[in-house]
Amino acid sequence: MRYFFTSIVVFSLLFVSACTNEKPNSHSQLQKKSQNQKTHENPQSSQKDLHNIEKMNVSKNRNAVKTVAQPSAVNVLVNKKYFLPKNYVPKDLVYPTVSFIFKEKIEKRKMRKEAALALNKLFTGAKKDKIYLSGVSAYRSYVTQKAVFNRYVKEDGYDNARKYSALPGSSEHQTGLAIDVSSSTGKCAAQSCFANTKEAKWLQSKSTNYGFIIRYPKGKESITGYKYEPWHIRYVGVPLAKQMKKRNITLEEYYNVYPVSK
Ligand SMILES: [Zn+2]
């Protein structure tokens, strides 16, 4: 039994949230993240898949971390291993017409045009099913992420900051294609308790109809490198979203580059 609980604690430490920039409450959460876990490409990757990802999105870099070649591709892969180019800013950011849990017209309300239009449709579709949603946080610029990260480095040092905050360039929110969604009340916004809500269940079953995927699904933590985030949806377009749902795969599996760690 003790082993069981120890496993849960260790497991939750390995996979931090992709969305929040909040510092962990307990100092112990800053410790003990496995330093030995290595990221490597699946040795069974087919040449076709690798060729595809390199051609479509990614240019090979000298190091383990790679920079995506086509950051504006709707199917772009961004994670702890595949970074957006420094200072990439989408050219077509707009404000979706849906409601957010805040009133201000600020950066985190923005999305890329195609994703914003799809989001509007998703919220309308949800409303027809009597599911009332709100946006929590969408676009986050490289500059914002860098400022946040640097502040934490100042406070806690680089190694600790690295454990709870995404490096600038590695956040999917910088694509303008991802958004955290909650119920209209904002209850459990970007928190694990959101998983049990009817809004989360609706997103799980219906979002692919609008071109969105649950980017960090339950049971795929060791593949994506992030804990289950039922609130973080990512626009990839309807055909790809449906294909991924049918095959029950993540973007890492689609491109055959996993697992992702650190
Ligand atoms: Zn998110």
Order of strands, main sheet, comes to 6-7-9-8
The number of domains is 1
Architecture, CATH level 2?
Answer: 2-Layer Sandwich
* N-to-C SSE string, H for helix and E for strand: HHEEEEEHEHHEHEHEHH
Strand content: 5-15%
- What are the bound molecules? zinc ion
**Strand pairing plus helix content: what structural class?**
alpha+beta
**Average pLDDT metric:** 82
Catalogue the unreliable spans: 1-13, 25-63
What is the overall silhouette?
Answer: globular
For the record, give the distance between the C-alpha atoms at the N and C termini, rounded to a whole number.
28 Å
Largest sheet: 4 strands, antiparallel
Specify the number of helices: 9
CATH topology name: Muramoyl-pentapeptide Carboxypeptidase, domain 2
The top-level CATH class is Alpha Beta
Molecular structure report:
This protein has 262 residues and is α+β, with helices and mostly antiparallel strands. It has a single domain, classed as Muramoyl-pentapeptide Carboxypeptidase, domain 2 (2-Layer Sandwich). It has 9 helices and 9 strands. Strands 6-7-9-8 form a 4-stranded antiparallel beta sheet. A 3-stranded mixed beta sheet has the order 1-2-3. A two-stranded antiparallel sheet has the order 4-5. Strand 1 and strand 2 form a beta hairpin. It is globular, with a radius of gyration of 18 Å. The N terminus is likely disordered. Bound molecules: zinc ion.
